[in-house]
Amino acid sequence: MELSERQEKILEIVKENGPITGEKIAGCLELTRATLRPDLAILTMSGFLDARPRVGYFYTGKTGTELLTERLKKYKVSEYQSVPIVVKEDVSVYDAISSMFLEDVGTLFVVDEHACLTGVLSRKDLLRASIGQKDLNAIPVHIIMTRMPNIAICYKSDLLIDAAKKLIDRQIDGLPIVKDTEHGCEVIGRVTKTTITKVFVELITDHNI
Ligand code: ADP
Question: Does pTM surpass 0.85?
Answer without folding.
Answer: no
